[in-house]
Design a protein that fits this description.
The complex is a heterodimer of chains A (about 575) and B (about 550). By secondary structure, chain A is of the alpha+beta class. Helices cover about 15% and strands about 35% of the residues of chain A. An 11-stranded mixed β-sheet of chain A has the order 7-8-6-5-9-10-4-3-12-15-14, with helices on one face. Chain A has a 5-stranded antiparallel β-sheet with strand order 17-18-24-20-21, with no helix packed on it. Among the domains of chain B are: about 80 residues; about 120 residues, no CATH class; about 170 residues, 3-Layer(aba) Sandwich (Collagenase (Catalytic Domain)), CATH 3.40.390. Chain B is built from 15 helices and 15 strands. The two termini of chain B are about 30 Å apart. The N terminus of chain B is likely disordered. Classes of the chains: A alpha+beta (about 575), B alpha/beta (about 550). Chain B: Pathway: Glycolipid biosynthesis; glycosylphosphatidylinositol-anchor biosynthesis.
């Protein structure tokens, strides 16, 4: 039947065709998987699911309440809290930029949440508090631990990624929970937000026992308003669910350099999600295409400029039946030719990503310390500015006068510093700096701090483990080796279209450093009882002697004879001579 | 041999050494007594005051009054006699003059009424007297009036009016007799239009266990969702097979035309919000059985209880509010399992192909297999007939909201509720039972909270909780008073306030803070202070007592 007319059920049972309702085609869903063999021999798999909905959540007159592909729970959150943009990520493990290069969408270890509220919101803090509670319910995470003491309002580092050029950072809230542990219970609600659940399409690969048996796992939800088309005449809401995994297949398969979808996910693909308008797998074959063979072979190749690099990808379109072959099942298999694979990537020679940052705590003892942040610019001849953002909890009291920025052993004066000092138990330190990185250099930012004493109820469980300090964020426009693609097209692969590219010569990169683990002076927690006991004893002893003094009857004793007289008496008694008085 | 030193005590008798010793002992005794007195009078209260938990004052006596709450409900009933019902003598005896005026007006409008009662007639009667919420107007028309068909004794309109065919009055009857004759009829009308004993008992069923409740009204009250300040109504379209069916439903239009009028009508009871979603790849928890005789899949009634749980996992909780959710699911079976029919306990197919779960929502199975032939290329676009679906869901929604079926006595004719789906008097019925239920719930909450606070002495009661409790109590009292006065709208308003305040007080997190710091621990901590302090005091007191005894014994021996 070619006409594909929609059918309508009449009450008398006859069939009839009728025009579509207007709402039918207003939302669409795309899914995509990118597989990239990494230099270290690991496999990087990045899933992206995008739901676009041509609707405005922040409409005043009409509440959005009828959902199709967009998950209802998130939609309600958006409209209730007047959220303009929401980015939330849960990450287990640390992305090793030196070995793996840049990820498509970076995220810090633990949980990260940043939200732009609409500028009609009057009580931003109240909305933020409630929003974090609701989100912690939706994602089964401890986001309810986000409060004013770990929330900051960065002035420059986190600009909205979607439409609109909001600059008033009063409507921005940013918080991280570096201690958050991500596991299956976070993945299940995340999968539930997908229209096809985990029943069809690429999401069947998302089996938690495989995903969490990996070196790095990160899942995220990004919601933002975007342009509906190239002319940007109408606004649409984009929900992007991303999941990034790095599998260490080299060690888990006894040194054999081959991987397949089945090996990674213990599943093969049989169909695309029927609701998806596009469903594709990209395999990065840029590095040494002659050294390995990919099975099955696809004639489709695609080139994309991503993160300042031109990459070539083999494309598998799951919406076409021929992709699945005779077996009706797609299991991508990559095998290295001969044993060349063994020595291509020894894992020893590190990558030199253009921008890289790391951080550590120096110092000794439990009183003071020093935070070192080291930022590397590996570009051979270009200097570029980076924005460094640090959010330090109040119990590390930063001595901002000790802040030094040195590059190439020379003082490097930041051109912009935004510092908001902490208030004890109310807000953390926020330090934002715009630093110019000289070409091929290492810039070190140090600041000293003193550890505060906490009240005994403020210690976390297991306080001797230490206290986490969230990653610092380095955001930069890195000069690109190749011309970036600035024009917006609908059929661009999802992984290259997340961060809008404004100019051809540079691309946006955000690098997260390691979170810090700082030991605070930890008391003995039976202390309050000891203190009470000690005080009571002292009081009791004092009181006892005072009481005795007041109530006892005192008598003067007969002064006893001196020792020599007593001795003399003893002798006298033996001799029978009268005793001395 | 023994000399006293340190003498503060000056005796008027010249002190001998023995007297001095006595005086010194006396001084020691006084000191011990004084210290004991200071410890008891100042020390212990001070310690008690500084270590006690803050407990604001609660109106316990008023709360205990609430426990034995006597509800008295009164309905304003206006009985209007139309011309020809009463003899002139009887009319004269009417104490109120405005009744006559009313009568006159009715007389004017009655010619407009057609031979059978119609909506317009009802409306015109409604216009005559703007009856307030909760009241009932009964028009008594002559026995011979052709307004109502022969066999109809009472006609209940869409609003708060009823036409009552008067029983034959003897012209010799006094007014009293007339009224008492009418009494039974009016009572029937009122129990249909506002509340009956059964309704109220059912509304109180959570609080009062009574054997008198009929099974049906009990079932009604259990089916209806609990009273709450707001409800979320969620319509979900379950499409387990998006590969073969592409379903379209005009839920927005359907809600606008079918559900919204009812919700607008119910606005005084609660805030409603409606939303909808489409869920894919959702399967029922049970496998339907294929029945060869009808060549269809069937779900038997006893397997329905297993359907909901697996589905509910996908429905998603309502993130944005904590109000109870009413779920209405439209399930379109996949092509391999259609058609699917629901069978009741007597193995017959349910005509609506739907069922509901008390206080949760309803599920309707919508078969689409007849709408396309085998030649159709999947996915088949299907538009769902929303009128059919919404009819079922509307009926289920009425059940959930507690709009109960009334069983009028014979001879009663009820006007169909019209476009809003709810007549004014039906709303009143609901309001009556809701206010009673609210009052019952709020007073239960408050009394159990008071009991809890009374029992566990070291819960901190902050001022805001005390304030909530007392505002709940005052609202409850005014709600009861309003019910007594027959002001239904105010009663409901106050009962809602009471329930809100009582819940807020009951669930306040500050009540939990010191719950786990019991008295025995407190004493254990202070034992290092208490023991060394009290032991000398107690010992010296014992000593004083024993000395006094001894002295008395000595004195007695001396006197003997």
């Amino acid at each position: 039947l070619d006409s594909r007319l929609p059918l309508v059920d009449r009450s008398d049972g006859t069939k009839d065709s009728e025009s579509f309702t207007a709402a039918a085609a207003r939302d669409q869903f795309q899914e995509e998987l990118v597989i990239r063999p990494l230099h270290s021999g690991d496999i990087y798999a990045s899933f992206q699911f995008r739901t676009l909905w041509d609707i405005d959540f922040l409409q005043e007159r009409q509440k959005v309440s009828h959902y199709r592909l967009f998950p209802k729970s998130l939609g309600q959150v958006l409209s209730k809290f007047s959220v303009r943009e929401l980015h939330i990520s849960f990450t287990q493990g640390f992305w090793r930029t030196m070995q793996w290069g840049q990820p498509f969408i970076p995220s810090p270890p633990g949980a990260e949440l940043w939200v732009w509220f609409h500028d009609t919101v009057s009580d931003v803090d109240g909305n933020w508090k409630e929003l974090t509670n609701v989100l912690s319910g939706i994602f089964c995470a401890s986001l309810n631990f986000i409060d004013l003491t770990n929330t900051v309002q960065p002035s420059a580092s986190f600009k909205p990624l979607g439409l609109g050029n909001a600059t008033d950072h009063r409507f921005l809230r940013y918080a991280t929970l570096p201690r958050e542990i991500v596991c299956t219970e976070n993945l299940t609600p995340w999968k539930k937000l997908l229209p096809c659940g985990s029943k069809a399409g690429l999401s069947v690969l998302l089996k938690s026992e495989k995903l969490f048996h990996s070196s790095f796992h990160s899942q995220a939800v990004h919601i933002r308003p975007v342009c509906q088309d190239e002319q940007c005449t109408s606004k649409a809401w984009e929900l992007r669910q991303t999941l990034n995994v790095v599998f260490d297949l080299y060690t888990s398969s006894q040194g054999k350099k081959e991987w397949s979808l089945f090996k990674m996910f213990s599943r093969t693909l049989t169909e695309a999600c029927p609701l998806a308008t596009s469903s594709k797998i990209y395999v990065d074959i840029t590095d040494n295409p002659e050294l390995f063979e990919l099975n099955p072979v696809t004639p489709l190749l695609s080139q994309a400029v991503v993160l300042g690099d031109r990459r070539t990808y083999s494309v598998f379109d799951l919406t076409r039946a021929e992709t699945f072959g005779q077996l009706c099942s797609l299991n991508l298999l990559l095998r290295w030719k001969g044993d060349s694979g063994m020595n291509v990537f020894d894992g020893c020679d590190m990558l030199r990503p253009l921008l890289h940052a790391e951080r550590y705590v120096a110092g000794f003892g439990l009183q003071t310390g020093e935070i070192h942040t080291v930022i590397y610019n590996n570009h051979p001849y270009r200097a570029f500015p980076v924005l460094l953002m640090d959010s330090v909890p109040w119990y590390l009291q930063l001595y901002i006068h000790t802040l030094t920025v040195t590059s190439k052993s020379r003082d490097n004066k930041p051109s912009y510093i935004h510092y908001q000092p902490a208030k004890d138990r109310h807000r953390p330190h926020l330090l934002e700096m715009l630093i110019q990185l000289p070409p091929h250099s290492m810039t070190e930012v140090t600041v000293q701090f003193e550890r505060a004493l906490l009240k005994w109820t403020e210690y976390t469980p297991d306080p001797n483990h230490g206290f986490y300090v969230g990653s610092s964020v380095v955001s930069a426009l890195v000069p690109s080796m190749v011309a970036m693609n600035t024009n917006f097209t609908q059929d661009q692969p999802l992984f290259s279209s997340f961060v809008p590219v404004k100019e051809e010569s540079s691309y946006f990169v955000r690098v997260y450093t390691e979170p810090l683990l700082v030991n605070l002076p930890t008391p003995d927690f039976s202390m309050p009882y000891n203190v009470i006991c000690l005080t009571c004893t002292v009081v009791a002893v004092g009181y006892g002697s005072f009481y005795n003094l007041l109530t006892r009857t005192f008598q003067v004793d007969e002064p006893s004879l001196p020792l020599e007289k007593r001795l003399a008496n003893l002798i006298r008694r033996i001799r029978g001579v009268p005793l001395l008085a | 041999m023994i000399k006293c030193t340190n003498l503060f005590f000056i005796s008027h008798v010249s002190p001998g050494p023995c007297c001095l010793l006595q005086a010194e002992k006396q001084r020691g005794r006084y000191a011990a007594l004084a210290i004991a007195a200071v410890v008891i009078v100042v020390g212990i209260p001070l310690w008690w005051k500084t270590t006690e938990t803050y407990r604001a004052w609660l109106p316990f006596s008023e709360i205990s009054e609430l426990d034995s709450l006597q509800l008295q409900l009164s309905v304003d009933i206006e009985v209007v006699f139309s011309r020809g019902t009463l003899t002139p003598e009887q009319q004269k005896k009417f104490p109120l003059s405005h009744v006559n005026e009313k009568e006159h007006q009715v007389d004017v409008s009655i010619p407009e009424l057609l031979t059978s009662p119609s909506t317009e007639a009802d409306l015109s009667l409604h216009m005559l007297s703007e009856s307030s919420c909760g009241s009932v107007v009964v028009y008594v028309i002559p026995e011979t009036a052709a307004l109502l068909p022969e066999d109809v004794k009472v006609y209940v309109g869409q609003r708060r009016t009823a036409l009552l065919r008067s029983p034959p009055f003897k012209s010799s009857w006094s007014l009293k007799e007339v009224l008492s004759n009418l009494d039974v009829k009016v009572e029937q009308v009122v129990s249909t239009m506002s509340f009956s004993h059964q309704d109220i008992v059912a509304a109180l069923s959570n609080r009062v266990r009574m054997a008198k409740v009929t099974k049906e009204s009990m079932a009604d009250s259990m089916r209806a969702i609990k009273s709450s300040p707001g409800y979320e109504i969620t319509f979900s379209l379950l499409n387990p097979d998006p590969r073969s069916h592409s379903l379209h439903w005009d839920i927005e239009g359907a809600v606008q035309s079918c559900i919204q009028p009812l919700l607008n009508k119910l606005a005084p009871i609660a805030n409603f919000s409606v939303d909808s979603q489409i869920l894919y790849y959702v399967v029922l928890g049970v496998n339907p059985r294929f029945d060869n005789s009808v060549s269809a899949y069937t779900l038997s009634a006893d397997s329905l209880s297993h359907v909901i749980n697996p589905v509910e996992a996908r429905l998603g909780s309502n993130a944005a509010s904590s109000n109870p959710v009413l779920n209405f699911l439209l399930y379109v079976p996949d092509s391999h399992h259609s058609p699917l029919f629901i069978r009741d306990h007597s193995k017959r197919e349910v005509p609506s192909n739907a069922f509901h779960s008390p206080r949760w929502g309803g599920i309707m199975v919508y078969n689409v297999n007849e709408m396309y032939g085998p030649e159709a290329e999947p996915p088949v676009d299907i538009n769902i007939n929303m009128a059919k679906v919404m009819g079922v869901f509307l009926a289920q929604l009425r059940l959930m909201l507690g709009v109960q079926h009334t069983h009028p006595p014979t001879g009663f004719v009820l006007q169909s509720p019209g476009s809003a789906g709810l007549a004014d008097w039906e709303l009143d019925r609901l309001l009556w039972s809701r206010s009673v239920e609210n009052i019952a719930t709020a007073s239960t909450t408050i009394t159990s909270l008071a009991q809890l606070l009374d029992q566990i002495g070291n819960i901190v009661i902050n001022d805001n909780i005390a304030q909530q409790v007392s505002s709940a109590v005052t609202s409850l009292q005014s709600a009861v008073a309003e019910l007594e006065a027959g002001n239904l709208a105010f009663a409901l308003q106050y009962s809602r306030e009471a329930i809100l305040a009582s819940e807020r007080a009951f669930f306040d997190p500050s009540l939990l803070h010191l719950l786990y710091f019991p008295d025995d621990q407190k004493f254990a901590i202070y034992i290092p202070l208490f023991l060394p302090m009290c032991v000398p005091i107690v010992l010296s007191l014992l000593k004083i007592v024993s000395e006094a005894k001894k002295r008395r014994a000595d004195k007695q021996a001396k006197s003997d």
